[in-house]
């Protein structure tokens, strides 16, 4: 993750959580008290977000007191329930005041990484890349996108500014795919990719005729996709290098049906908008 942006985000989160002071910790422990704790996985899964730990402790450190976060695993490692994944030692106040931010973010990132890895394994098709969407929690996109990568997936566009994606409302409000693409091409750099969401054979052909870079099949079952890929193949045989993405309604229960569908990407919104956080705890090292 970008170190500067990571630090800025964590400062914001710590300010929100601690505010004018951690009164529970400050009233119980003195400045000189030191402790040691461990982070323990309470269920199986992929762990992610280890760089958060030390960054949080550094932000809470004073001229005289600090704390150390020592990972025992690496981002992207698979761990089992009961495994100690990291140790921490230092001023007790820092360990306890930083505990919840570290856990919240690591649990969320680990949950996203685990779900991404599960999707890849269930799909079992190395020709198709699993990617994320913009359906991230506001303020957490840096962490959510990093977690998808650590789970073996790839990031789709990061935000609205880095790729053109013409969805149903763009097309409807503009009047047609052709009109929307033409307007875009009058304004953007030629290197900027254009993706168009389609829901029918007619829209697919119109998009391909306009030489867009990526076509997204929206909410189509794998059998329909396989039929449409025959049309795509004809265009590719004539030199069109369009990439194909499948999106909408795809989850862990049905993703295996998309194996050998011929698409290049499957984008999964549930990876980040319906996160099951991986359970991790922080306890005293006895």
Question: What can you see in these coordinates?
Answer:
The protein is an alpha/beta fold. It folds into 2 domains: 3-116 and 276-284, Quinolinate phosphoribosyl transferase, N-terminal domain (Aldehyde Oxidoreductase, domain 3, Alpha-Beta Complex); 120-273, Aldolase class I (TIM Barrel). The chain is built from 10 helices and 12 strands. A 6-stranded parallel β-sheet has the order 6-11-10-9-8-7. Strands 3-5-1-12 form a 4-stranded antiparallel β-sheet. A two-stranded antiparallel ribbon has the order 2-4. Strand 9, helix 9 (222-237) and strand 10 form a beta-alpha-beta unit. Helix 8 runs parallel beside helix 9 (222-237). The two termini are 33 Å apart. 37% of the residues are buried.
Brief characterization of the structure:
The chain contains 10 helices and 12 strands. By secondary structure, it is an alpha/beta fold. It is elongated, with a radius of gyration of 23 Å.
């Amino acid at each position: 993750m970008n170190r500067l942006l990571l630090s800025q985000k964590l400062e914001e989160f710590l300010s929100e959580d601690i505010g004018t002071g951690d009164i529970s910790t400050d009233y119980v422990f003195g400045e000189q008290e030191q402790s040691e704790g461990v982070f323990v996985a309470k269920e199986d899964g992929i762990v992610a977000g280890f760089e958060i730990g030390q960054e949080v402790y550094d932000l809470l450190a004073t001229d005289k007191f600090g704390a150390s976060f020592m990972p025992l695993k690496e981002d992207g490692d698979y761990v089992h329930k009961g495994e100690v994944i990291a140790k921490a030692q230092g001023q007790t106040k820092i360990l306890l005041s930083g505990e919840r931010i570290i856990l919240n973010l690591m649990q969320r990132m680990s949950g996203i990484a685990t779900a991404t890895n599960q999707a890849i394994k269930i799909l079992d098709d190395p020709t198709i890349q699993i990617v994320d969407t913009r359906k991230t929690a506001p303020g957490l996109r840096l962490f959510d996108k990093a977690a998808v990568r650590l789970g073996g997936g790839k990031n789709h566009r990061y935000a609205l500014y880095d790729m053109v994606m013409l969805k149903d409302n763009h097309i409807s409000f503009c009047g047609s795919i052709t009109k929307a693409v033409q307007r875009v091409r009058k304004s953007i750099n030629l290197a900027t990719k254009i993706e168009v969401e389609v829901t029918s054979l007619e829209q697919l052909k119109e998009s391909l005729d306009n030489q867009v870079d990526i076509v997204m099949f929206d909410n189509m079952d794998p059998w329909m996709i396989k039929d449409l890929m025959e049309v795509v193949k004809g265009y590719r045989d004539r030199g069109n290098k369009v990439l194909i993405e499948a999106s909408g309604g795809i989850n862990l229960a049905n993703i295996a049906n998309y194996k050998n569908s011929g698409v290049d990407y499957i984008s999964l919104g549930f990876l980040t908008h319906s996160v099951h956080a991986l359970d991790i705890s922080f306890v005293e090292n006895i």
